[in-house]
Amino acid sequence: MVKTSEKSTETALGYEQARDELVEVVRRLETGGTTLEESLALWERGEELAQVCRRWLDGARARLDAALAERSDASEASDTSGTASARPTNSSGATSDDEPAG
Fold first, then answer.
1. Which of 13, 24, 34, 75 could form a Cys-Cys staple with 17, CB 3.0–4.6 A?
2. pLDDT digits (tens, 9 = 90+) for 32-84
3. Three-state SS at 80
4. Got the DSSP string for 11-77?
5. Of 64, 42, 58, which Cα lies nearest the Cα of 10?
6. Are 10 and 51 in contact (CB under 8 A)?
């Protein structure tokens, strides 16, 4: 179950803010010099921030997938609509690819 403070963190922070704060938390943990209690609090905060980032990235991936699927569906619909070939043809109906160069 998600705690109230975690919910407010998720709605209040954008991806960039959460990422920047996470970088700072990691830096402080790697530097050391904190008490065990402070380190645990930093680690917990880092976990919350990582979850916020993960949700933002998952949402972005879902939006990209939806846009790509929509684009693919639109492309398939136009391909099957019976439209003529997009390649230019000459008066005999041959495409410009069929004509010899020269």
1. 13
2. 999 999 999 999 999 999 999 999 999 999 999 999 998 888 888 877 765 55
3. coil
4. HH--HHHHHHHHHHHHHHHHH----HHHHHHHHHHHHHHHHHHHHHHHHHHHHHHHHHHHHHHHHHH
5. 58
6. yes
Total length of the chain? 102
Name the helix (H) or strand (E) containing 95.
none
- Reading the block at residue 35, the tokens are 């008490």
Pick the closest to residue 51 from 4, 6, 101 (CA basis): 6
Nearest one of 25, 50, 19 to 38, comparing CA atoms: 25
3-state secondary structure of 89: strand
Other CB atoms within a 10 A radius of the CB of residue 81 amount to 7
Please enumerate in sequence order all residues whose Cβ is within 8 A of that of 64, keeping only pairs 6 or more positions apart, or say none.
none
